[in-house]
Specification:
The structure is a single chain. This protein is mostly helical. Helices cover 78% and strands 0% of the residues. The chain contains 19 helices and no strands. It has helices spanning 2-19, 24-38, 43-77, 80-92, 97-109, 114-132, 136-153, 158-167, 171-200, 228-255, 261-269, 272-288, 295-328, 331-338, 346-361, 364-380, 387-397, 407-415, 420-448. The protein starts with a helix and ends with a helix.
Length: 449
C-alpha cells in the first residue's frame, strides 16, 4: 500500500499541474498533505513533517544555490561566461560543442555538488546556445547527465563517499573504477540519447524558450569581456577549494595525522557553502572592481539573480516536503522489508534497493545511505564480493527515474524552460539510462574482477 499511495500522489500531482494548471509549489504542498493522510501520518504531525522537509531541503541547498546563482550571474553580467563560451566554441567547434559541455561538466562535477555545478555552468551553456542559435536543451541535457553521473558515482560526493566507508571499499579505487564506468555512461545518456530524442521530437528543441530562472541576459563584444584565464579561474574557484579540502581530508584519513590549525582552516574553506562565498567575493573583485565596475552595479546583478530564482526555490522546497512525507510515512521501511532474506547477488540487490528507494523517496543521497544499512548485513554473510562494485551499484541505483519528488527534476525543468511532459521524456529517461547502463558496466566488470 505505501507504494500504491506514492503512485497515487504522483498521479494527483500531474493532474493538478498539467490538467488543472495549478501552481507547481501549491500542487506539491497539496499532494504532500493528501499522501500524508493516506500513509497514516498523525494529523497533528503532518504540517511539522512538511515544514521539516521544506526547511531541510532549502537549508541544504538554499545557501549554496543562492550564492551560486549570484556567482554565476556576476560572471555572466561581466562577460566572463561569454568569454568562456566562445573559447570552448572556438576550441571544439560547433559540431563538437556537446562534447565541450560534457568535458567541462565532468571536470567541474567531480568535486561540486550537483546543484552548485549546475548553477555555475548553466549561464555558460545558455550563452553558447544563444551564440549558436540552438535550443538550451541540446546542451543542457548533456550537462545534466554528466553532473548526475559524477554526483552519484564518484567520491568525494557525499553518497559515494559515505557508502564506500560503510561497505569498507577503498575510496581511491571507487573513484578510479567509477570514472571508468562514468565515461561510457555519460556518452550513452548525455550524448547519444539527446540526439535520439532530437530526431524523434525535433519540435522540443526550439530556440525561443523562456528561461525565467536565469533572468535577462546581456550581450557582449568579445573584446569587452574579461580574459579567459581570469574568467575560468573565477568560475572554477569553488572546485579548487573543495578539491583541496577533499584531498586533505582523504590524506588525513589514509595517513592518520591529527588535526592542526592549517588542516581545520583548509577543511573550513573547502566546505561547499564557504567555498561558494569566497568565490563570490573573488568574482566581485575580478569581474567588477578590477574592471572599474561600480559595486552598486554588481549588487544589482546579485539581486536580479535571486529575483529570478524565487519561485524555483519554493518549488524545490515543495519537492523536499513531498520527499519528507514519504520518508516519515514509512515508504523506505516498507521497501526494506520487501528484501529481507533475499538471496540475489549483492551487487544486483544493492542496485535494486537503491533504485526503488530513489523512485519512492526522491533523494538520491537518502536512497544511497538507506541502501547501505540494508546491504551491510548481507555483505557480512557473502564471500568474494567486490565492495567497490557494490558501492558503484548503489550509486547507479540512486539515479533511477528522477521525477516529481526529486529536486533536480524541478531544477532541470525550470532552468531549461521545459514542460512536465518534456522533462519526463528527457531528464527522467536520462536518469534511468544512467542507472541501467551504469549497472550493465558494473556487472560486466564483475565478470573479470
Amino acid at each position: 500500500m505505501p507504494l500504491l499511495f506514492t503512485a497515487i500522489g504522483v498521479i494527483l500531482l500531474l493532474i493538478l499541474i498539467m490538467v488543472l494548471r495549478l501552481n507547481t509549489f501549491i500542487s506539491l504542498i497539496i499532494v504532500s498533505f493528501v499522501v500524508a493522510l493516506m500513509l497514516g501520518i498523525p494529523v497533528e504531525e503532518i504540517a511539522t513533517s512538511i515544514e521539516s522537509g521544506l526547511g531541510g531541503t532549502l537549508g541544504h541547498i538554499g545557501l549554496i544555490f543562492g550564492l551560486g546563482a549570484m556567482l554565476g550571474r556576476l560572471i555572466a553580467d561581466a562577460g566572463g561566461s561569454h568569454r568562456i563560451a566562445m573559447t570552448l566554441l572556438n576550441k571544439f567547434g560547433e559540431k563538437k560543442i556537446q562534447w565541450a559541455v560534457v568535458f567541462a561538466s565532468f571536470i567541474i562535477g567531480i568535486t561540486l555538488f550537483y546543484e552548485v555545478a549546475f548553477v555555475l555552468l548553466i549561464p555558460i551553456v545558455f550563452t553558447i546556445a544563444k551564440e549558436l542559435n540552438i535550443s538550451i536543451i541540446k546542451l543542457g541535457l548533456p550537462m545534466s547527465a554528466t553532473l548526475l553521473v559524477t554526483h552519484s558515482f564518484l567520491p568525494p560526493h557525499p553518497g559515494a563517499t559515505a557508502v564506500a566507508a560503510e561497505y569498507g571499499a577503498d575510496i581511491g579505487t571507487v573513484l578510479i573504477v567509477g570514472i571508468i564506468i562514468a565515461i561510457p555512461t555519460v556518452i550513452i545518456a548525455g550524448i547519444w540519447y539527446p540526439r535520439v530524442i532530437e530526431k524523434l521530437s525535433p519540435g522540443m528543441f526550439h530556440t525561443n524558450r523562456e528561461v525565467i530562472s536565469l533572468g535577462a541576459q546581456k550581450t557582449f563584444a568579445l573584446d569587452k569581456t574579461p580574459g579567459f584565464g581570469i574568467s575560468i579561474l573565477t568560475a572554477i574557484f569553488p572546485v579548487i577549494l573543495i578539491t583541496l579540502g577533499s584531498v586533505v581530508e582523504m590524506v588525513q584519513e589514509t595517513v592518520g595525522f591529527a588535526d592542526n590549525g592549517l588542516i581545520i582552516f583548509i577543511r573550513f574553506i573547502g566546505s561547499a557553502s564557504v567555498s561558494i562565498l569566497l568565490s563570490l567575493l573573488l568574482a566581485v573583485y575580478t569581474m567588477g572592481i578590477a574592471r572599474k565596475i561600480p559595486i552598486k552595479s554588481m549588487m544589482n546583478s546579485c539581486s536580479a539573480s535571486i529575483n529570478a530564482l524565487g519561485m524555483l526555490l519554493l518549488i524545490i522546497g515543495g519537492g523536499g516536503a513531498f520527499k519528507e512525507i514519504l520518508i516519515d510515512g514509512g515508504v523506505g521501511t516498507y521497501i526494506a522489508k520487501l528484501f529481507e532474506g533475499s538471496a540475489i547477488s549483492p551487487i544486483l540487490l544493492a542496485w535494486t534497493v537503491a533504485a526503488l528507494l530513489r523512485i519512492a523517496l526522491g533523494s538520491g543521497t537518502v536512497a544511497t545511505l538507506s541502501t547501505a544499512g540494508l546491504i551491510i548485513p548481507i555483505l557480512s554473510q557473502t564471500s568474494d564480493v567486490n565492495l567497490v562494485l557494490v558501492t558503484l551499484a548503489t550509486g547507479a541505483g540512486s539515479c533511477m527515474a528522477s521525477h516529481v519528488n526529486d529536486a533536480a527534476f524541478w531544477i532541470v525543468k525550470e532552468y531549461m524552460g521545459m514542460s512536465m511532459k518534456e522533462t519526463f521524456a528527457t531528464y527522467s529517461v536520462i536518469s534511468s539510462i544512467i542507472s541501467v547502463v551504469g549497472l550493465g558496466f558494473i556487472m560486466l566488470l564483475d565478470l573479470f574482477f
